[in-house]
Amino acid sequence: MRRVLGLLALLWMGWSGAALAAAPKTAATRTILVLGDSLSAAHNIAANQGWVHLLEVRLGKMEPPWRVVNASISGETTLSGRHHLPALLETYKPNVLVLELGGNDGLRGLPLAAMKDNLAAMIDMAHQGHVKVLLVGIELPVNYGPRYREALSGVYADLARSKRTALVPFLLEKVALDPSLMQADGLHPTAGGEPAVFATVWAQLAPLLR
């Protein structure tokens, strides 16, 4: 009887091992980390109306799977983002970083050299971990004057060139000049404008996911 049971156990172990070897492996979930400010934090609209949520919906249709971690905080500057990023990279281990910061630096008139240094440091952190980066730029309202506005836009272009990152030159390109798609503050899109914002990001993000 013991001999029969032993043979049955060996047969079962052999069958189960073969079954496990033949089973298809599930692809590991890949991660996109979005580090931004109120423009990525669905300011004054429902979270499920923001462009980051629309990104989650779009990625939900892809195989293998992707997840989106939205670490955006209203009021975030490049300096505070620089402080937050190391822990975020360690915790979530993303494959792609969408870096949408700098608007609050510009609105507060902070030195652009410091802004550029902070963004460069964050890009370097990501690259050291073999994380692809999409740098997302912003433009300021015209009352800030052409010299400062052009210099701020130039920060993103220079960094994308020197650090070899993908670039969205202006996040609100498709909505900024349409009052029906912007909130009363003139700075944040309405829920109706968020799909256009998503489309602007997606055009540059999609190639990084291949």
What does this structure look like?
The chain is of the alpha/beta class and 210 residues long. The protein has seven helices and five strands, in the order H-E-H-E-H-E-H-H-E-H-E-H. The protein has helices spanning 2-22, 51-59, 78-92, 103-107, 112-128, 146-163, 194-205, and strands at residues 30-36, 66-70, 96-100, 132-136, 166-168. The protein has a five-stranded parallel sheet, with helices on both faces. It is globular, with a radius of gyration of 23 Å. The termini are far apart. 31% of the residues are buried. Residues 1-26 have low confidence and may be disordered.
Oligomer: single chain
Q: DSSP helix count?
A: 7
Rg over CA atoms, rounded to whole Å, is 23 Å
The computed structural class is alpha/beta
Tell me about the largest β-sheet.
5 strands, parallel
List keywords for this structure.
46% helix, 5-stranded parallel sheet, 5 strands, 7 helices, 210 residues, globular, alpha/beta
Summarize the structure.
The chain is an alpha/beta fold. It is about 45% helix and about 10% strand.
List the helices and strands and how they pair.
Layout lengths: L1 H21 L7 E7 L14 H9 L6 E5 L7 H15 L3 E5 L2 H5 L4 H17 L3 E5 L9 H18 L2 E3 L25 H12 L5
Parallel strand pairs: 1-2, 1-3, 3-4, 4-5
Helix pairs in contact: 2-7, 3-5, 5-6
